[in-house]
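for the recovery benchmark. tokens below, seq after
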């Protein structure tokens, strides 16, 4: 495991050097690949990132982390974002399950679950959303009934990203009736090989089979896999969602910047596409400004967290702004690359492939982790304290 420099700036420099040396071949997202990286290759790269000090940065050393602060986490994430690195296979484990286990898990659970997340021994998925209970999570119907053998779970989850490749599911289920809304909800760490779990992949618009629906048919979950108390599921879930919306994937602002820079650099490689680019100068200038504002959101958030402040509903602000701004950029980028000449060189082909993939993936960004409408509602009610219209 890499020894971390004490200066946060030096930590970022260390991250940059490591990524330059190790992000090669079919792992790069700024190249067209005849043979994309396999799941095993992606997992191996992610495990290597942890050993290098680029994952589990703020987690306690006792649980496999590096015991540092959000400042080091921010510095590393700047470099991860600027690098054309692949999306994490185990983002749910590291960014959602891990923090909630640290918050409400027992010591035994922390020692059992957390190190295996960082070493990629256990990949996690998130079993929250259901048909009819997506953004309105309190409407979920998946039931958990306590028996002498443990908990018996029945229900269906959908949009369970990566479920077919996961070893554990962070599952939210109901112990009471659906009319209880926020009451009677419980969180579990469910092994995905438990009898009665049926996982079905869903092909997404970009051709991937990452989305899944998961059915639970009389699934027996051991008491030891319950996270927190039976009636604390809602508070734990909302804590997870505030983390997801605000502090997770801190690299996004800088990944956004690298995408914009890639597009501009590629267009400048050919006089014909440079002329196309000039027609979008104002639009891309606005994108650049939005990126800088997003960086400011993240940096301000880090300072607030370091000062001991709670995220709370303010987590909706960066999530809303990022998803809307990035979706707008993706549309502009798709328009530009659609006008590339048919005899374009490799730099343009690489940019075209990346921008088209970004456009397709961006269609879901204003939906996952809470829709734009839900974020606006939270901001209106809980930050601005606006009253409902008469």
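predicted aa per position
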């Amino acid at each position: 495991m890499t020894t971390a420099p004490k200066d946060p700036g030096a930590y970022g420099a260390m991250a940059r050097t490591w990524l330059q040396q190790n992000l090669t071949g079919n792992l790069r997202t700024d190249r067209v690949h005849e043979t994309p990286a396999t799941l095993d290759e992606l997992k191996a790269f992610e495990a290597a990132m942890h050993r290098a000090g680029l994952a589990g940065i703020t987690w306690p050393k006792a649980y496999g982390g590096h015991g540092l602060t959000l400042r080091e986490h921010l510095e590393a994430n700047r470099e991860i974002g600027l690098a054309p690195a692949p999306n994490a296979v185990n983002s749910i484990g590291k960014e959602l399950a891990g923090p909630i286990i640290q918050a409400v898990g027992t010591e035994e659970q922390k020692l059992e679950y957390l190190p295996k997340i960082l070493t990629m021994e256990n990949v996690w998925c998130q079993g929250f959303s259901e048909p009819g209970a997506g953004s309105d999570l309190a409407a979920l119907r998946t039931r958990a009934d306590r028996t002498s053998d443990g908990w018996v779970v029945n229900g269906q989850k959908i949009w369970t990203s990566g479920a077919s490749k996961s070893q554990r599911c962070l599952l939210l289920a109901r112990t009471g009736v659906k009319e209880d809304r926020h009451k009677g909800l419980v969180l579990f760490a469910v092994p995905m090989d438990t009898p009665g779990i049926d996982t079905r992949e869903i092909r997404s618009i970009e051709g991937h089979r990452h989305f899944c629906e998961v059915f639970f048919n009389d699934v027996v979950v051991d008491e030891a896999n319950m996270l927190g108390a039976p009636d604390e599921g809602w508070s734990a879930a909302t804590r997870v969602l505030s983390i997801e919306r605000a502090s997770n994937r801190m690299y996004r602002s800088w990944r956004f910047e690298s995408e914009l820079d890639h597009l501009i650099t590629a267009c400048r490689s050919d006089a014909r596409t440079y002329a196309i680019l000039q027609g979008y100068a104002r639009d891309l200038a606005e994108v650049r400004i939005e990126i800088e504002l997003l960086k400011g959101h993240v940096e301000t958030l880090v300072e607030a967290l370091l000062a001991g402040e709670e995220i709370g509903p303010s987590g909706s602000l960066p999530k809303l702004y990022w998803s809307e701004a990035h979706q707008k950029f993706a549309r502009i980028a798709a328009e530009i690359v659609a006008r590339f000449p048919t005899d374009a060189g490799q730099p343009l082909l690489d940019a075209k492939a990346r921008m088209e993939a970004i456009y397709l993936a961006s269609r879901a960004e204003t939906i996952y982790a809470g829709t734009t409408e839900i974020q606006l509602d939270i901001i209106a009610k809980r930050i601005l304290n606006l009253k409902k219209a008469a």
